[in-house]
Design a protein that fits this description.
five-stranded parallel β-sheet, TIM Barrel, two-stranded antiparallel sheet
Length: 249
Amino acid sequence: MPRPIVYYFSLLSPWTYIGNRLFADLARRHGMRIGYEALAWGRCVKDWTAAWDIVRAADRDNLGIVLDSFHICVRGNPIEPIAALPAEKIALVQVADAPALVMDPLSLSRHYRCYPGQGDYPIVDYLDAVTRSGYRGPLSLEIFNDQFRGASAAAIAIDGMRSLRAAGEALATKRAARRPAARRPRAAPAAARDRNGRSAIATASDGRAAKRDREKVIDEGPDECSAARVPGRSVAAPAIGQDHLRYGP
């Protein structure tokens, strides 16, 4: 059974990697993992890349990073490097979209988060990078807005699941487009033709037949076989000592 995750934020924890080590060691005694998340409005750490540096320096197997698409996208953090993270160091992945409004990140987060695909953030690119890291853990919708607070919890849950499925389909489409196209079998080259327009294959066949006829003539003598027929041509019997064939009309 997976261990419980306790995660804390850069807003509340201006700790060095030494403090993270102590916290992780304390959590280990209770069979827990620790997830460290960078908040876009954090006082100490605002970007996931800085949070990762702290987690990596702490070097505890039960300490990982929490990734949230909102905090990453609202800060304009790079997404592609997420694919290089060790999967076992990602404690939790959170997903939320938002419109590209010009306002402070805290207000935008509290009132305008929305389902994946309803906003302007590159959610599919984010999920693509996360899955390419090898992460196969929990995926959490973390959405706050005024409309959801007054709606039915069941309806919100159903719509949330639909949005995740739609995001999954978009992710599958992106992956399919990235795969190299299947190689088509090469068409057989057109048969070469001689100067009379006949197929080189037929010409070669004629040549082999002519060779057999020549050998037969030589073995049996001119009296027994004065001429042999080759399809489309007549082959005169060679004179004694002649080492080539003359083709008649």
